[in-house]
Amino acid sequence: MRANRLLGSALVEHNLIRIEDLEKANERLLEVLAANQTRQSTVLGILAYEMKVVREDDVLQHAVETEGVGLVDLRNYDTSDEIKKALDVGACWSTWSVPFDREEEFYFIATAYYLSPAVRSFWEKQFGAQIVWYGTTLDVIADYLEKLEAERTSPLAAGGTRSPFSAPTGSKPPFPAAGAKPSAPAVAAAKSA
Question: For the chain, what percentages of helix, strand and coil (3-state, to nearest 5) are there?
Answer without folding.
Answer: 55, 10, 35
